[in-house]
Each structure stands twice: as C-alpha cells, then as structure tokens.
Amino acid sequence: MSNAPTRPSRFPLPLAKLGKSGSAAREVLMPQRHLREAALDASRQSAPSGLGLDSGVVRQRMVRRLQQDGLHDERVLQALAGVFRHQFVDSALATQAYEDTSLPIGHGQTISKPSVVGRMIAMLMGGTTAAQQCGLGRVMEIGTGCGYQAAVLAAVAKQVVSIERLKPLHDKAKLNLAAAASANIRLIYGDGRLGFAGAAPFDSIIAAAGGEDLPQAWLDQLAPGGRLVAPMAVPGGRGQVLVVVDHRQEAGVSRFVRSEYEAVLFVPLKSGVM
Ligand code: SAH
C-alpha cells in the first residue's frame, strides 16, 4: 500500500465532473447568466449568504454614506439601518433601493431620498420637549406613500399616525408595513391637510408633500412643546424649502415659532382624496 497522499482535485476540473455531456460546462462558461440570476435573486429578495439586499451590510453601507454626508443623529442612523428599503419599492427598482435617490412608487409619487428622510427626522428630534428628547413621542405623518418613512419613524416614535389621500398607495403601504411588522403605525386614508383630530394632539408632525401654506389643522393638532417639519413652497414659484414650526406655550398662551432651512423638492400637497 502506498503512503503517498491523495492529490486534491485541481482546476481545470475534468468535464465529467461538471455534469452530463458538457452541458454544465457550457453554463460555467457563461458568466452573464450567473450575473443575471444573481440580480434576479436579489430582486426576489431571496439572495442567500448575507450578500443580498436583505443583508445588513447594504443598509450599513448606506447609513455610513449618510453619516459622511453630515447626518449625525445616532438614533436616526440606527432607525434607517433597521428598515429594508427595497421592500417598499417595485422589485425592478430594488437594486437601487440603497442609493441616496428618490424612486417612483406609482401614481406619480415618489419615495423620498434616505438623506432627506434622515434630515427631516433629525430636525424633529431636535425639538425641545421631554417627549422629543426620548424619541418623537406621538407622530403624525402626512403622505404615507409606500410607507417607508412611516417605518423609519416607527423606530424612534411611540406611535405613528400616517395619512395618505390616494387609496391605492394607502393599500400598498398597508401591505408593505404588514411585512415590516411595525406594530405602532396607524394608517389613515384621508386628506392630510385636515390632520387627524381623532388622535390629536401630536408631539411631532412631518409632511412628505409640499403646499403653498401650512394648514391650520396641523398647528391646531400640534401639542404644546411639539415640533412640525414640512416642505413649503416659496412664494413666486421659487421652489420649496424645509420649514420647522415649534409650538411654544408660556402662561397658557401659544406661540408658533417658524424657521426656514434648505431648498428641497417634494411632490405637491393636494386637497381631497382619490
Ligand atoms: N413618505 C413617503 C413619501 C411619499 S410621497 C414614502 O416614504 O414613501 C408624498 C405622498 O404625499 C404621496 O403619496 C401623495 O399622494 C401624498 N399626499 C399629497 N397630498 C396629500 C394630502 N393632502 N393628504 C395625504 N397625503 C397626501
């Protein structure tokens, strides 16, 4: 008996090891096919081995880029890192879900850029009440869209009440958020310009669509000490800016203090439901 060690198999492997009559060999020689299959896997959200879109790695990478670009609130970064953005967009767009870009969600609407979602939530976090220091408290969101921002908000809020005026998007968000299993989100089909008096007052209000004015109902439904963040049109058709309104109350008298920030681009805030 020989003591010589068995030599391990080396590449190139004999054709016989690759399958019957060379057919497997043909597959091995077509890398495009594997790339296509990997992309399909990713868009079916089932890529194995932690390297697909379900992997925390892609979300962490997105969050690191947002951090480098100036988003520093750790609670917001964690919230963004915890939400699977690709599950909120069409599977054909899933591979773009972790880029800092807005994407179409149907019905002429878009999911906001992660950097803008992060920026607005960080602005809400900067409010002064106790509720805001330990999270956003009770939040009203106007413009549920596909439900992505609602899911991020839910990670830093006690409760999120999110309103959408387009029934198909309201229904889509319901499905998306059922998959995300965020228990503290309540979805309302209605005109967000009216707010939602049934659940008011809110510690925080955030709008994902920009109007010419701030609806009175939002100010009425903002709790004392609460903060509102919304895009608003600049008069004269000069685009939109982010507006922050703080509800201050001294000796029982309410004051609304308004500040304006950078230019943004949001879909219009419309009236009524469809
Ligand atoms: N936060 C969303 C962004 C959606 S885009 C997301 O993460 O996907 C803004 C949404 O605001 C659109 O779906 C639009 O239909 C909705 N919208 C516009 N005006 C509205 C109103 N008055 N009430 C409720 N939703 C409104």
Task: Give an overview in words.
Helices cover 30% and strands 23% of the residues. With 274 residues, the chain is α/β, with parallel strands linked by helices. The chain has a single domain, classed as Rossmann fold, CATH 3.40.50. A seven-stranded mixed β-sheet has the order 5-4-3-6-7-8-9. Strands 1-2 form a two-stranded antiparallel sheet. The radius of gyration is 24 Å and the shape is globular. The structure holds S-adenosyl-L-homocysteine (SAH). S-adenosyl-L-homocysteine binds next to strand 2, helix 7 and strand 4.
N- to C-terminal separation?
A: 84 Å
Query: Regions with pLDDT < 50 over 5+ consecutive residues?
Result: 1-51
- Please indicate the count of domains: 1
What fold name stands as the CATH topology? Rossmann fold
Q: Name every ligand kind in the structure.
A: S-adenosyl-L-homocysteine
CATH architecture: 3-Layer(aba) Sandwich
Summarize the structure in short.
With 274 residues, this protein is α/β, with parallel strands linked by helices.
Key features?
274 residues, two-stranded antiparallel sheet, 30% helix
Which helices and strands, and how do they pair?
Layout: H1 23-28, H2 31-43, H3 56-68, H4 74-81, E1 103-106, E2 109-111, H5 114-125, H6 130-133, E3 138-142, H7 148-154, E4 159-164, H8 167-180, E5 185-189, E6 202-207, H9 216-220, E7 222-233, E8 240-250, E9 253-264
Parallel strand pairs: 3-4, 3-6, 4-5, 6-7
Antiparallel strand pairs: 1-2, 7-8, 8-9
The structure holds S-adenosyl-L-homocysteine (SAH).
S-adenosyl-L-homocysteine (SAH) binds near residues 146, 164 and 269.
